[in-house]
TrEMBL record:
This is Germin-like protein. Belongs to the germin family. GO terms for cellular component: apoplast. Residues 1-21 form the signal peptide. Oxalate binds at N93, H98, E103. SMART domains: Cupin_1 (SM00835). One of its GO terms (molecular function) is manganese ion binding. The keyword Signal applies. The keyword Secreted applies.
Amino acid sequence: MAKSLALLTTFALLSLTTVRASDPDLVSDFSVPDGVDPAKLDGVFFTYTGLRGGAPASTNGIGYKSVTIKDFPALNGMGISMELLKFAPGAVNVPHTHPRGAEVLFVVDGSLTVGTVDGNGKLYKNMLQKGDVFVFPKGLPHYQANFDKTNKAVTVSAYGSSIADYVDLPKNLFGSSIPDEVLTKAFKMSAGTIQQLRTAQN
């Protein structure tokens, strides 16, 4: 009896954790911003035109334009967002994670090498062509790289969260104030190498 109660309590706590980690459910058809009269809304409210100019250029070779509730209030409560990315020839989107949502990437143009690593350290990678789709599970480290030296690649990503967030792993590890002693032991590197990595991220 005690084991059953403990098991039931564990499942209940896990359920609460899952609910808290996701976007809240709507109690109406859609969310209306404060101060807006729902009767005056039309199709314009559900339309976002910010991608008409494409993704902007970038100094690191990856131009992107995110579509989140910050710019598109109609997404509020929907639990989704998206992003348009343009990879210059040779550009790499460094290993990163999205802690709040899975990512589904669609290749609009060009080709892209992608990969994700599971909790056991296994790498799942593939070379994607125009029209291909790849899914990156929520929270797992992953990367995208355009190894084509002459052609750009364009992708659209959809996220299972209104704000999936972006955690740049090299910058968060080596651009932070984690003590050198921790990083040298974790990565089995000399303090000098750690300092070089820190310098590269700052």
